[in-house]
Specification:
- This protein has a single domain (about 60-375), classed as Alpha-Beta Barrel (TIM Barrel), CATH 3.20.20.
- Helix content is about 45%, strand content about 10%.
- The chain is built from 13 helices and eleven strands.
- The chain has helices spanning about 5-10, 15-30, 60, 80-95, 110-115, 135-145, 165-175, 205-220, 225-230, 245-265, 285-305, 325-340, 355-375; strands at about 40, 45, 70-75, 100-105, 125-130, 155, 185, 190, 235-240, 275-280, 310.
- The strands form two sheets. A nine-stranded parallel sheet has the order 7-6-5-4-3-11-10-9-8. The protein has a two-stranded antiparallel sheet with strand order 1-2.
- The longest helix has 22 residues, at about 355-375.
- The radius of gyration is 23 Å and the shape is globular.
- About 40% of the residues are buried.
- Residues about 5-10 and about 195-200 have low confidence and may be disordered.
Length: about 375
Amino acid sequence: MKDEQTLRLFDFEGSSKEEWLKLIEKEIQPKTWIDLNVAVGDSRDVNAAYHPEDQTLSRFISKSGSLNGWLIAEDFDALSNPMECNERLLIALEYGLEAPMLQHVDPFVNLDTLLKGVIPGYISLHWELPEIEAANKVSQYLRSVHTEPNKMGGGFLPRLTLDHTFISDLEKIENAFNEGFNDQYRWIHIASSETNKNEPFKDELGFICFAFHKSLEILGEQGKLTEEIIKRFQISIKAGDQLLLEVSRVRALRILLANIQKLHGLSGQTPVFIQGKTDITCYTSEPDYNRIKGALIGWALAAGGVDSINIAPGNLNPPASEWAFNSRIARNISHLLRMESYLSEVNDPASGAYFLEETTSQFVKNTWKTLQEMESIRNVLTLS
């Protein structure tokens, strides 16, 4: 006959939360569950009484498919010296880069020089262009060097503003990229910046959700809101050194984006492409220390489930002779997370961890509550 202790262990898995709490309550007297809660800052308390019944978030967090893959991304300044940018781009592609971000590409940049030796169809090529007018030049160039642009992935990521110019700018981009490019090519970019401090939301997660909501609202007013248009969005989010909270924040973002889609009459089942970047404000003047911190932030982004990881190198201003090594170490973090930690093999690796589930839920509920107050939204938040 099993003793009392064995019976408790045997019955634990099949117990309801209510039964479980009653069973364990005797063990913590005279303390209560409130005494065991963990404060994590920003008025958030994690309930220690986590139970499998509380795990209701995974459906919206899961990306399409069964794996947790991500692209290895890196920024390149195309404005100052296109030839040097091309040399660095080729070196990076040789050593595992998958999603280069070409920044500051204006209408006058020589694209033949910038992309000499690069085959756009084999990588996910991203363009950050300060001027909408550059869209036609880029799309024409891509068609000229690749006979099947429908096989290309990546995105044209302009600076769109949420005002009367949003639709007209969006139409310019659509005219440049609609014909021939597949649904993996994105052209509506949302990212926070220093200029967001005067927006209704002070935090990055809140601003991104607010901007996404407003974008869908404008598209809906113009009759352009469809499931397909969701595939054209790319969200960029920065991650700092509060590692577990960063995991929860990325997971919360997926749930919030799904709920915002449902708010506008969509299914909420189309995943939005999320790029994760290191927040360099948490870096120091010590390159080796930054590399360790970058590796940990990369882990948090991978565990959170982003689609692309851009880890800043340890030395933010290396001499030219050290650039290749400095950047390669940063890229190798993603390789290690894939090939040694196997984070790419499990969809939503953080699922079931009570602290992460609880903080994810709090991020979601707090942001949704603020969005409801700002926009008079009456829709009920769906977590399952």
